[in-house]
Amino acid sequence: MTDFHHISVTDTVAMLAQQPVIIADIRDEQSFANGHIAGAYHLTNGSLNQFMQQIEFDQPVIVVCYHGNSSQGAAQYLAQQGFEKVYSMDGGFSEWQQSQPFERDSDA
């Protein structure tokens, strides 16, 4: 697959409850520290190589940004790198935090 799929916050919650899913949060350091989905991987240019080595290509990856725009480009990139099940979460973290629990880094 070389394309990604869109996924809603509701469907993300359902998928997380059903199977292991990688949440790849691409927001800046401060935004990530102030709040992110529990267990999210902070995916940055600096952590991309490590991400590519650690994550299995057949494991679902849901890319999260602020509002669901930037995540589309990142999701497309991951799909082109060989990840088989890549999603961009519509509405981004701003929509997630309106209805779902999230965690903060202790030093934020």
From TrEMBL:
<dbReference type="Pfam" id="PF00581">
    <property type="entry name" value="Rhodanese"/>
</dbReference>
<dbReference type="InterPro" id="IPR050229">
    <property type="entry name" value="GlpE_sulfurtransferase"/>
</dbReference>
<protein>
    <recommendedName>
        <fullName>Thiosulfate sulfurtransferase GlpE</fullName>
        <ecNumber>2.8.1.1</ecNumber>
    </recommendedName>
</protein>
<feature type="active site" description="Cysteine persulfide intermediate">
    <location>
        <position position="65"/>
    </location>
</feature>
<dbReference type="InterPro" id="IPR036873">
    <property type="entry name" value="Rhodanese-like_dom_sf"/>
</dbReference>
<dbReference type="GO" id="GO:0103041">
    <property type="term" value="F:thiosulfate-thioredoxin sulfurtransferase activity"/>
</dbReference>
<dbReference type="GO" id="GO:0004792">
    <property type="term" value="F:thiosulfate-cyanide sulfurtransferase activity"/>
</dbReference>
<dbReference type="InterPro" id="IPR001763">
    <property type="entry name" value="Rhodanese-like_dom"/>
</dbReference>
<feature type="domain" description="Rhodanese">
    <location>
        <begin position="17"/>
        <end position="101"/>
    </location>
</feature>
<dbReference type="InterPro" id="IPR023695">
    <property type="entry name" value="Thiosulf_sulfurTrfase"/>
</dbReference>
<keyword id="KW-0808">Transferase</keyword>
<comment type="similarity">
    <text>Belongs to the GlpE family.</text>
</comment>
<keyword id="KW-0963">Cytoplasm</keyword>
<comment type="function">
    <text>Transferase that catalyzes the transfer of sulfur from thiosulfate to thiophilic acceptors such as cyanide or dithiols. May function in a CysM-independent thiosulfate assimilation pathway by catalyzing the conversion of thiosulfate to sulfite, which can then be used for L-cysteine biosynthesis.</text>
</comment>
<dbReference type="GO" id="GO:0005737">
    <property type="term" value="C:cytoplasm"/>
</dbReference>
